[in-house]
Amino acid sequence: MIVYLQMIETDEDKSKFEEIYQEYRNLMYYVAYKRMQHEQDAEDVVHHVFVKIAENIKNIEPVSPKTKQLIVTMFDNRVTDVFRVRGKHPVVMYDDELKNSPVTENEREDLLTECILKLPEQQRMVIWMKYKQGYSLREIAKALDISLVWAQKIDQRAKKKLEELYLEGGGIL
Question: Residue 83: which CATH number?
Answer without folding.
Answer: 1.10.1740
